Amino acid sequence: MNHATTAGYRPVGDILLMTGRSIRRSLRQVDNLLAGVFVPVMMMLLLTTVFGGAMSTGSSTTSTTWCPGSC
For 60-71, how does the pLDDT look when each residue is reduced to its tens digit (9 = 90+)? Predict the structure, then answer.
């Protein structure tokens, strides 16, 4: 007999449960949430500002090269 059928395997319910736990945990650890948002934004700004003039991209602007779909 398959263990998944005897234990009441519910993939959608398991996904929702783990998603809820992850969201609650990230709300308790605000520093990780801020770092996850703040660091990528700062890296994009730093790289486009510092290295923006050093890159030859042809007719496209530097911001569309570093972050496609932004414009």
Answer: 555 565 565 555
